[in-house]
């Protein structure tokens, strides 16, 4: 990259690998969600022009990327990929210059396999990384989306289980090739979250990394991808210049209701996903334009702290979540998500996010709503994500104290539940977990002798592991969540749908569950079980608070 190269030459040192990163999530437009693998030059030029004409470019949507389908079979005599000369009569450098002339940035697309996704003869970059990186440099590329098809053989497009598909190696090779060219090229890893621990290796290589299989134009995709995104922020793997990519937006495609489009855009914004528009800008409905151009929501995404909102509370029986994150200027964003089809009013407890009171702005309503303190009723339409920005925050002084930790391995087990011991640093904090809770063998764990000084609803720190990743099931009903139920003192079981916890089946995640039915004394019991015949999450332990 230009700057590091210059410094290295001056110092006479070897050129060290660097990354071209944008500190805040990338914003732009990509052909795939509307034009699949059949983009052409007119489509790209018209939509690029429309980004400028509509003012979206001024709001930050700058990167224009022709996705799969831009190249033709074979390589030229220099071994370079070739633009399809029928659909992209100029392509390459001329297209790059055109996009730059509009004040936009030019995105390239390739992959670390034999062929591009969606084709069986258009070469991707495996084995040609340096040649291709040099070509992208010459064509004036500003970013590279690097996909994961045909990584094991020229015959299988998508592999979810093969270790090669989950390995960082091919992505590392292209990162190194990009570092040899004299141009800043932002690297978008599109590995889909295959294998394990992508949140550990991908942020070192690229500005963004896809955490999920493709978004599908249906509401259920939003739930699936939100559950898949949860661990990256919880594990602090995201931040400035490192963004978990929740995939391109389906706003404007007619797949979601207006409320759902706001939910989707708001959730992607507060989780600091790249915001890549996937609809035709030339046919963008006004209502969708209003969403994509909402400057206050965009500002949440582009906030300089780069802090992705985390899942703070989930009430599965009533189908709502609270997500929250820090913003610059000692502010916070709170997203209250209603997964329910119908409207409902929920009680938001600010102390859950460490706040006793704060000035609040309802972002979508564009209204300052004054000072909120303690608990607040929030009215939500079906599938609404209410976004609040909190400022002038008074922090909560009344923190809960831990009153005990109960390792799941010491609970009394029934049905198919078994204790699994884990390696060092795994299944924290106790180094073991229960597997096979729930399922058709009805695995259960009973904790007894839980102590509380008063009766009522308590916060339970629930240390669980879920790495049931929805890849092959992504367009179907795969949700990245697993159910667990808790029954307190013989009462009715209450269900929670928990998201992924980390990067494999040994990385613990914690959810604080607000659980009813405890009594004063030292003899409370909690039975943890599954729901239906499905396996529950694995369980490490529970911590009680009062
Ligand atoms: C997928 C990728 C999509 C799109 C598609 C093209 O692998 O995740 O974003 O690029 O390939 O066929």
Outline the structure in words.
The protein has 546 residues and is α+β, with helices and mostly antiparallel strands. 21% of the residues lie in helices and 32% in strands. It has twelve helices and 29 strands. The strands form seven sheets. An eight-stranded parallel sheet has the order 9-8-7-6-5-2-1-10. A six-stranded antiparallel sheet has the order 11-12-13-18-15-16. The chain has a five-stranded antiparallel sheet with strand order 20-23-28-25-26, with no helix packed on it. Strand 11 and strand 12 (320-327) form a beta hairpin. Helix 5 (129-139) crosses helix 7 (169-179), helix 10 runs parallel beside helix 11 (286-292) and helix 10 (258-270) runs parallel beside helix 12. The protein is globular and about 80 Å long. The chain starts with a helix and ends with a strand. It binds beta-D-galactopyranose. Residues 32, 37, 67-68, 117-118, 147, 149, 190, 192, 214 line the site of beta-D-galactopyranose (GAL). Its EC number is 3.2.1.22.
In short:
With 546 residues, this protein is an alpha+beta fold.
Q: How many E-type strands?
A: 29
Shape: globular
Helix-strand makeup class: alpha+beta
Give the count of helical stretches. Answer: 12
Rg result = 25 Å
Bound ligands, named by name, code or SMILES: beta-D-galactopyranose
Largest β-sheet summary: 8 strands, parallel
Q: Kindly report how far apart the N and C termini lie.
A: 54 Å
Strand order of the largest sheet: 9-8-7-6-5-2-1-10
Poorly predicted residue ranges: 1-17
Overall pLDDT confidence: 95
GO molecular function: alpha-galactosidase activity
Family: Belongs to the glycosyl hydrolase 27 family.
Domain Alpha galactosidase C-terminal: 318-390
Signal peptide: 1-20
